[in-house]
Amino acid sequence: MSHTVIPVDVFDYVVFGATGDLSRKKLLPALYYRFADGQIPDDSRIIACARTNIDKPEFRLMAEDAIKDSASSISIDESVLKRFLCLLHYQVIDVFNDDDWSALKTFMALKNDDRVTVFYLSVDPSLIDPIVSGLKANQLHTTSRLVIEKPLGFDLPSSVHLNNLLRSVYDENRIYRIDHYLGKETVQNLMALRFANIMFEPLWNSHYIDHVQITAAEKIGVQGRGGYYDTAGALRDMVQNHILQVICLSTMEPPATFDADSVRDEKLKVLQSLKPLTSEHMNANAVRGQYAESAEYSGYLQDVDKKSSQTETYVALQFYIDNWRWAGTPFYLRTGKRLSEQAMEIVFIFRKMPHFIFGKTSQEVQPNALVIRLQPDESIDIEITTKEPGHGGMRLKETTLETAPSTSIQSQDAYQRLLMDVVRGDQTLFMRGDEVEAAWQWIDPIIEYWKQSDRPVDTYTAGSEGPESANALMKKSDRAWRKIQ
Ligand code: BG6
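A: This is the predicted complex of the input protein with 6-O-phosphono-beta-D-glucopyranose.
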């Protein structure tokens, strides 16, 4: 499908942690594809910074391999790749060493124009403080933008501390907290669907929506990230950020205009309206699970090489958004690793008809559903009931209307959009500090409850649909999870 490409201004993208996983798997390929599409001016520079003692040609070789590895279905144009590699530079930097900072500063000053400057921190959280301090001490912060990845803190106090640190050097309007789920095509399509069409708005509330199901199921396990994952767990890794962000955009009020702060003000209000899960209701409304060995897969404990761990690889929650629009509509979310399929969807399930005129068949009719799918393909579908064609009388069947036809977009696409948004200076798809804190405020009591609880984490067989207790959570309100597919 052809699309309009508007080149961005010339920039310097300085990536700290440039030899790391995220940089190789996502950032470098994303920048390459934007370049190949004609969006990045040739005079731009990507300045890779890391401690690894390699030189520019070695880094370029590493980047070439990374881009080719990511290509899977898209063919790489060798001549374009060659031109792209010329944009890459490499600076060895130990962030505690003043001389290394001076060298970086000198290199950056070689281009003495008013180009957009971005510092992207793809580093261990312990390095954020020295890097931000180094940027300030070397006067590199004055006109630049700062991009920072999750984890954005570990709980509310640590996220407040992080926000204070960042804001002591950068104004909030130059801090870009990235959540790649916000860069996904469908997430933005959802906003177009809601706010560029009149037909959904009257139905988008608890009068018409019976309940909402959010599923983020992954087939993969912890994939060599066991060290990090065992200290985080599914609630911190997926719910606090990606899932709550998607919920915010799906349920927020229409912002006055589509600008960064109007959108983020509305998202913040949703987070502030999340009804706290209190300890008396926690057992009934919150489930945590951990995958156990199956014939096909190893179990979590083997994957993280531990004898015991209470870290959850699966979470299911029932909760409410206590505001005028959503009061009374239950939200159910589940996310987990090593589940049967890779699937991410948010489904609005409508109430049943007040009166059904088609007699006996009424029991068989499914309620309408609006399905927003982010994985494996991206699409927005409406499930409705229609007449079965033919002369056999009035028989009903379920039909799916595709409002936004499915597209199989490369996963680095989210990064492509977000990386360019930083250069454009558009913060709409980035989290503001107060949102991150509000999300932790809701999450922290759940973590605390589990920490204190003497009920061990439930187990589920790797490759299944999750623990039995998650089904019970639904059953108590006479509902059932949709099949993960
Ligand atoms: C990351 C989590 O933020 O998102 C991972 O740390 C998870 O554990 C990943 O696998 C999921 O992203 P995506 O785009 O593959 O759904």
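The first strand starts at residue 11 and ends at 16. Residues 433-452 form the longest helix (20 residues).
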